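Annex B, item 7. Sequence and structure tokens for protein A, then protein B.
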Amino acid sequence: MSIGAVISGCKGTSLTSQEVSFFERTNPWGLILFARNIDTPDQVSELTQAFREVVGRSNAPVLIDQEGGRVQRMGQPHWHKFPAAGKFSILYDSDPLKALKYVRLISHLMAQDLYEVGINVDCLPVLDVPQPGSHEIIGDRAYGVTPERVSVIARAAVTGLTEGGVLGIIKHIPGHGRAMSDSHLSLPVVDTTLEELMHGDFLPFAALADVPMAMTAHVVYTAIDDKQPATMSKTVINQVIRHKIGYDGLLMTDDLSMHALSGSFRERAANAITAGCDIVLHCNGDQEEGEAVAQGAGELTGVSLNRAEFALSKCCNPRPFDSDAAKEALKEMMGNEQ
């Protein structure tokens, strides 16, 4: 059966009969989980296994946004609580080597939490570079405020994830750091020159262009395409993401339900695929929207299928690591927040 060019969500802590039927018919490439889908380790394991049984692929990707700080779908009492990315940047100011060691260890520990319940993809690292006055939606989710620092700390983070058996996703390509609004709520417009973007915002994505999965930004860059956000722009995807940044991995959209986008859900999905995205993401589990998204996205074929298969080929078994050292590092980073 052909695979749909979609990553879908589900409503609750187990698949409903309607969701099972939907997944059997549309065969989405992956599933994404949110806090509403999380209860206990056994429950999450059963959910991830159930999805894979329905689609008939034992390695089907199951994704989650587990960044730490404000964005953490799995937490206490069953899982560790993790620091925001910005805390590693603060440590980097005084001890760069310690910061890189800690982010790698803690990312590996994060991957361990995910891997044990069947989650094999984390929507991390954030490569956006916040600018003065930009919207706080990125804020301390970023690893710093310079492209160089974001690049080096994010590399350690994605290495830790990979060593823990979990694939990372670089986001939000080609950069959300200058946005003056939250794309969950409205469409951000960035008026910065292409030269300034190339010498700043785009650099972390170029530095980590070997990471096999990336998520787009629902942001308009007027210097490149003054009408369409990156997710829907052939110009941004072809000229900037694929050419200038040099990214040739699997390109997935950010959530199509976000209010930055307009049009029907079928149109959103179809327009993103036409623009050059390989796979679309639909998170909220709404069945009516999901049907339209699946129809608009179509099948995962050709170079997009090759990119998806290559990404999954990078999944590996977790490597041995010093979990005690990781827990000590986490304890130090979290301080009174534990």
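Protein B:
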Amino acid sequence: MRLGPGPRHAIPVGILLLLGFAAPLVAVTAYSLATPRSFDVFRSLTLANYRTILDPANTVWLSFAWSLLLAAATVVLLAAIAYPIAYGLARLFGRWAGLVGLLFVFPLFISENVRLYGWVLFFIKGGVLDGTLRTLLGIGGPDVLFTPGMILFGMVYVYLPFMLFPLTLGLAMVPRDLIDAARDMGASRLQIWREVELPLAMPGILIGFLLTFVLGAGAVAEAKVLGGQSVIVITHDIEIAFTYAQNWPLGSALAVLLTLLIGTLVLLVLWRLDLDRILGRR
């Protein structure tokens, strides 16, 4: 009689999680409690870095607000953009679905910064769009570069695959027989979507939403390259603290607060949703 996997089989996974997840969090948290502008990690315990961040005179909360606002707007826009494409991949494209999916995967093989600078060359004055419009119509291109809207455009462009493929997986989990049965019983297309497709596809939709929001809240390249630092996001403040300012304790404190904030928001969303019903456990 062979026994199933026992606790000892979970030891490698536990070690991997400990080294890859818990250890960095412990290190960052320890640095956040160190003396400002020092490397006295594990040798000093102070809340000075947190007091600096929470000081009313400090405007770092604007960076937090911009990061969360841009991430939420990215999720909303990508939900509207990716859902029809995901529906086509799961239901309509047939044998062409693999090729269409590959077109969305291919940009991931190119550096994000290279792709973003490509958009800079496209939208910049004297660039591709501006030069083409001047040649054909005699008018210049729109001055959209280095604006918050351009940052949002870049985030939607970069994170589209991370929303698209979980949505496609979720829609692919909906049995066609149920849709046909609902149609035979006289349900309208809207009713089928609301009562059948949406609930059954919700695991993939939820994964896409959460993944995109977490990635968007931690985005920095879009704000630096396409936004020209017209908007300072929190990840930029963290980068400056760790590099130019050489204030690792302050950067660690910012990272801890960002992790706690995003984690709290995600847990609140999961708490408000009935996951057992969404995942079909009851």
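Comment on protein B: DSSP finds 13 helices and no strands in the chain.
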